[in-house]
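Action item from last week, closing it out:
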Amino acid sequence: MSESTNTATSGERRRGVGGRRLADAFSAVSAMPALAEARRRLLAACDHPASSPGDLAEAIESDAALAVAVMRAANNGAGPPGRVAGLREAVEELSGERVRELASGLETYDVLEQPGALSERHERFRRHAVAVRNATDRIADIARLANREELAVAALLHDVGQLVIAELYGDDYERLAGSGTPEDRVRAERRELGIDHALVGAVLIRRWGIRAPIAAAVERHHAPDATGHAAAIRLADMIVHHAMGSPTSVDAMREAASALGIDEDTLSSLLYEFPHAGAQRRRSSEPCPLSGREIDALRGLAEGKVYKQIAQELSLSVSTVRTHLHNVYRKIGAVDRAQAVLIARDRGWL
């Protein structure tokens, strides 16, 4: 390729894309296919008479396309857009039959039966989305982040803007995005294309009518000063890249961890856990009956602390902590602290 052609291509990138092309790319990504096996498992869960909303939500979380279809439908029904924060709530809003109908209407891809660049692109996106979602869940445990169902959706959709840019620029974007750290990728996008995937993804999520904090977390998940959900996704994204052997910035990981109150020893443990932490996270099939303070007190027990230590950390009296834990035992049917911790962990509440 001549130097003049290179210059022209670079100039075309910097000028950006027209509104029509971007709208077409948004439409294409809005109709993204689901992995055939993920849809099959969701349909089986929908047909099982004992499946709960939590079971269906867990099946939906195996594929971002399924999550998008369900969240869009739940947030664009009779009520105001953006009212549904997470997938369990979306399933309850829609009903299992409606979820089945949505899943049945999706196109699918199968990397074994339909190998090719498009199915490989969607499968890379899906695998990374699920891995980041799992890492984010572990980070949220450590950092004690609230609104976990909302965070799960943001983690699944954090890179949806990459699919939009790939629709716009094809192989040019694949080459642009193929090397360097996540921060290098974003800088290259801004330099060469005049946009970045985090911003584009947030715009699309807002167009879908999905909750504004989810779009905000996606938009800021590469920001050096990210906090809260955005910082959790930023750190999870880097941990997953590290586990895959891709380049990552140690300083950026420390920065994101610090924003969440995670110290270096804990960060080292997180890096060790992945990719070993491949087990599916456990999810309760029913809402947690415990209050936030009761969960905090039980978490202290799970960490091997005595009542006095828990009380000091929570700025409560020892008698109040004792009351919280007695309430925990009563609510979940535990006879002692060991059983309470075991039950809570098994049901995904810790």
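Closing note: The chain is about 70% helix and 0% strand.
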